[in-house]
Amino acid sequence: MMKRRFLNQWLLALAASLSMLAVLPAQAADEAPDALINRLTKEALDTIQADKAVQAGDVARIIELMDEKVMPHLNFQRMTASAVGPAWRQATPEQRKRLEAEFKTLLVRTYSGAMSQAKNLSFNVKPLRAASDDKEVLVRTVIIGRGDPVQLDYRLEKTPGVGAGWKIFNLNVLGVWLVETYRSQFAQEINAKGLDGLIGSLTERNKSNAAANAKPAKS
Amino acid sequence: MIFFCNQHRGMMVRSSVALLALFVLMLSGCATGPNANPRDPLEPFNRSMYRFNDTVDRAVIKPVATAYRDVLPSPVRTGVTNFFANLQDAWSFVNNALQLKGEAAGNSFFRFGVNTVLGLGGVLDIASEMRIERKTEDFGQTLGYWGVGSGPYLVLPLLGPSTVRDTVAIPVDAQGNLVNGIDDVPVRNSLTTLNLLNLRARLLEASDMLEQVALDPYTFTRDAFLQRRQNDVYDGNPPDEAEPAEPTDANTGK
Predict the structure, then answer these.
(1) Helices B217-233, A178-214: crossing angle, 10 deg rounding
(2) pLDDT by residue (tens digit) across B50-73?
C-alpha cells in the first residue's frame, strides 16, 4: 500500500516536472538572437536531412513543418504590412487577414520547392554586431553546400517574453531582401486595381501555382 | 535559388555594347513611365526588351538548355561549370587586386593555380575542397567599389538585367575573359556557347520558380537584381537604406 502511494506520488511528481519542462523553454530567459537563428537553422537542416517526405518535395508536409517550426518565430503581419506599404493603414481587418494569408501561401508554396534540394548542407552564423539594448538586430549566416556559399541574413525584432524573445521580420537570400522585392510589385497592383485587386491577384497566382504543382513532377 | 549569376557578363559582345549603350542613353530622354521608379527611368524600353528576351528564351534558349540538362549527366555539367568558374577566378583575381582586396586576390590567384594544375584545367574544383573561398568580382563591381554609381537599370538584349555602369564594364570584362583570348574562332565561339548554355541550364529551376513567386516577373527581377548587385559591390554589407523606415519608393495607395 505504502509502496503504491509512493509510486503514485513519484509518478505525479514526474508528470509535473515533465510538464514544467515542456513549458520551460517559453519561460526561460529570452534567447540571444544569433543563438535563436543558430538553433532554428540547425533544426531546419536536421529535419530536411531526416524527413523523406520533405526531400521528395511533399508540399503539404513542408507547409505543415513551416507552420509548426518557422511561423511562430516570424512576425508575418509586419512582413506583409511592410510589403504592402502605406496602403496597409487603409486596409480593413478582413483585407489584412486575407493579404497575410495569401502572401504566406505564395511564399511557402514557392520556397518549399527549394527545400527539397537542400541536402547535405552545413551553415555558420557570423558573430553578432549589436548592442545589448538594440530593439532590432541583423543576424548573418552562410549556408554551405555544393557550389558557392549562400548568404542568408535575418532581421529580428525584440519581443520580450513572447516566443524566444525575438521574431524575424525580414530575410535576405543572396543579398536580396524578401520584403523589398515585393514592395514595388504590390504597389503596382494597388495603384492599378486597389487593395482588393492586389488580394485578387495573389489569390489567382496561388490558385495557378497549386494547379501547376499538382501536375506530375517533371523529371 | 541562385538566380543572378554574374557570369553572363563577360562575353563576345565587345564594341556592339558600347553602341547599344549610346542608343539606350539617347532613348532615355523620351522614355519615362507614369509611375516611374527612380531607379528605372527607362522602364518602357526595359519592359519591351524584357519581353523580347523572354520570347527568345521560351522559343529557343530554354528548350535547348533543357535538352542539354537532360542529355548530359550531372558530373559532366558540374565539370563544365567548374571549368568556366575557374576562368572567372582568374579575372576575379585581377578585379580583387584592382579593389585592393589582398586576401581575396590571393585566394583567387591560388584557386586558379590549384584548379588549373591539380583540377585538370579547372574541371575539378579542388580549391573548394581545400576550403579556399571564392570571391567572384567583375569589372562592374570594381567600378562600384571606386564609387561609380550603378546608374539606371538596363535590360540588355539577350544578356538580360544590367545597369548602365555594368554595361559600360562589359567590354572590359570581355577582355578579361580568357575564352576571348583564344585565337581559333570556332573554338572560341563553341566555348562561349557552351558557357552560356550551361549557365542557362543551371538557372532552369530558378526561372521556373520566378514564374510562380512573382506577381510581375519584370519588377521582381529588377528589384532583386539591383539589390543583389548592390550587395555584391559591398561584399554583403551594403549601407542600410531599406529598414525599418516607411516604404519610401512605394506609391501611396488609395
Answers:
(1) 130
(2) 999 999 999 999 999 999 999 999
State the amino acid at position A186 in one-letter form: F
Q: How far apart are CA B40 and CA B137, in angstroms?
A: 24
Closest to A125 measured CA to CA, from A133, A137, A108: A137
Name the residue facing B250 among A107, A181, A183 (closest C-beta): A183
In this prediction, residue B19 has a pLDDT band, given cuts at 50, 70 and 90, of low
Answer whether the bond into residue B244 is a cis peptide, omega within 30°. yes
C-alpha cell of residue A87: 496602403
Contact residues on chain B for A174, CB-CB shorter than 8 A? 1-4, 228, 231
- Would you put residue A162 in left (φ > 0), alpha (ψ -120 to 50) or beta? beta
Kind plus residue range of the DSSP H or E element containing B50:
helix B43-56
More confident residue, B162 or B254: B162
Burial of A176 (0-12, 13-18, 19+ CB in 10 A): buried
A86 → closest Cβ in B4, B70, B250: B250
State if pTM tops 0.90.
Answer: no
Q: Identify the three-state secondary structure at position B118.
A: coil
Phi first, then psi: give them for residue B211, nearest 5 degrees.
-65, -30
Preceding amide of B34 cis, omega within 30: no
Interface test with B, best of A122, A158, A184, A203 (most B CBs within 10 A): A184
Residue B107 contacts residue B225 (beta carbons within 8 Å): no
With a cut of 70, say whether residue B201 has pLDDT above it: yes
CA end-to-end span of chain B: 35
Residues A162, A172: contact at Cβ < 8 Å?
Answer: no
